[in-house]
# Entry
Amino acid sequence: MSNSGSAVTLIGIFAGLLLINIARAVSRKHFPFDSYAKYTCLFFLSFTICELISFSVGIWILALVSFWALREYFSLIDIRLQDRLGILGAYMSIPFMFYFILIDWYGMFIISIPVYGFLAIPLLVTLGGKETEGTVFSIGAIDFGLFLFVFCMGHIGYLLFFAPWKAALLIINVAVCDVTTHIVRSRIKSTWPNILFRYLAPLPLTIVITLLLSGWTGIPPTHSLMLGLLIPILVIMGHHTGDYVKADLGVQEDSLFPGRGQILDNLKSLFFTAPVVFHYIRYFLT
Amino acid sequence: MKKLGDISFLRKLAHILFLRPLLKLVFGVNFIGKENLRNLDKYIIIANHNSHLDIVLLFCLLPVRDIVLTHPIADEDYFSKSRIVFRLVDFFFKPIWITRGKPDHAGDPLGGIKEKIDNGHKVIIFPEGTRGKPGELQHFKSGIGRLVAQYPDLPIVPVFLSGPERALPKASSLLLPFWNHVIIGPPQVSQGTHREITQSLEGILIGLSSSAAARRHKRKPRKKKYPPLIACLGIDGSGKSTLSRSVAQELSGTSSVCLISDRLEFYEHGDHQGIQPLVTEKLREVIGGYAKKAKSLKLYKIPKLAELLLRDHLLHEVRRWYSPDIVVMDGCPLLNIAAWAVLYKKDPLDNETLIKAMTILTGEDLKTRQGDPIFVRFPELSYLRRMKLNKLMLPDVVIFLDVDPTVACQRITARGEQKQVHETEEKLCQLHEAYLQVCRVIQQQWRIPTSRISGEDTPENVASAGLEFVRRSLNVEN
# Structure
């Protein structure tokens, strides 16, 4: 009974997000969480498909999101002509990593990028040409993108493998934090009150949501409480890092559009939350 | 006729079902200003050209009904290299094939294009002619202006493509997914001569290229920080050695200064410091001695040139081994050689030739070919270039000590030393003029701060005037 209830809820959330997106597309007007709704909807599409139809299709949708995020990042950074081979390597690592999730090979999933990816890319970058100047920066920039947008995003996929609701919980909590951050940001200017408020404001919601969903996620109440306390901090960290990266890449807050920081802006809260929440759950609950 | 219709239907289908989804899913396409193309039933699209992907992107932009009615312009020779490629390009885009440098049967190179426009078709033109360097807009060819001048009412839609130069650059055959931004400007109706039209269209595309979507993160280039070089110029007897020494001494109060005069000296905290000797310096002293003792201008020339080249080399060594904050130089090899060249050639030199010769001496000139007339006029330049000795440095600040040649001659006589061959009033007059010309040229061409100070004042006044100018110029640079 609870099983069908969870599925219905997932579909309900997905349908709701889809409606928002359709309304947005039809009305051609600016909504406050325009693109955010799009990517959240994509995540829930993946989870719903995973729950109802097939795990592998759900995973490949996440892989596609990861590819889009990486593509946008690579479009923004300054690359040399000879870095192209390294970039090809970075793109190629996406199917491999998501395939390891699909076949539940945890050991390989966790080392594929930090070991083999990060060894292969410097080699590929140096094989690309004879110019030595800028090699270190190129390797750094490509590796960083691969780490954030493929490796960190990939953790959502493995969370999905544990249970669709575990991944859904993460996305819902992050969305709650993001929305409050968006509301608070412009209102409170000074740093510490701002951070404190950004932590405390979503806290009741995240705790209540995690506790309420603990029946479907399979996370016991104590750990649900811990996750509820943990996620807002991680979101703040992700925002901080993401904002610096965005500023350096020349992305302006008021002119985000596809290919210019939109995905980066929407996924920045997942950089920290996805891996840490995944490892929390894996360490304590499996 | 029936068959033709089928093919155009297939082409439409291929675009809608294959090319467009592929481009959007794999590469990502972002249109900005698509409303500019709405409600236009006749137009020419002009765009910048960096990649083979450009044309696919532009077809993505078109309304569905226009897909089969739009034609790019393509070089037949280039695409005929492979039969399959030719067929594919012809199927997808149905270009107007042209051959470079060969007008069509009617004798008009634009004939084919005009025929299509007259039939109500749309044309895509890359006015740069060919794919340029990634991210750079080349000058437009005049063809676009000539064509547009004949259709004064036809709207021209300027499009700037940002992204394809990374997805498929000219220098690479590796196709990679990168976002493409297609920025569509408002339609233009241009009037005027074909030159004016070409220019105005180029200006519009440059304007689009600076829009926010095309802006891109740039890695900061590593700046090589050299100590600034201050050169004291003047004819013999103008007191430039004295000036350079006092400038070096005064500047060394706050920073380390190296003085390259007849001797190499190093100053720190206002004092003369002992330094490790350099072999080049010894060599230069010996050769400089030869030059001073020379009996005629002809014999003077070679040792003096060698001395100047060594002096320039010394500059590199000083930077490397002593790493001073500032280098002060009595004279400046590049400017000295230039002035002497003016002196040796009896006929007056125009500024353009002088700039050309000096650019060759700095080693930054890559355009001038071996057969250039300047090498006939100055065979020395050719020798220097062949021996790769043409890497002379330009100074950062120049002080020219202006002294009347008669006064200079008197001063030299008063020294009581043996006179050098060129130290006659007539030669010094010419040299004075030559230096003035060189100073004018470096000010105009390289924007190097140059000050002309009268050297007939007392040495103290000259030094303070020089110092003030140097401090001001160095501050401006920082």
In short: Residues 2-285 of chain A form one domain.
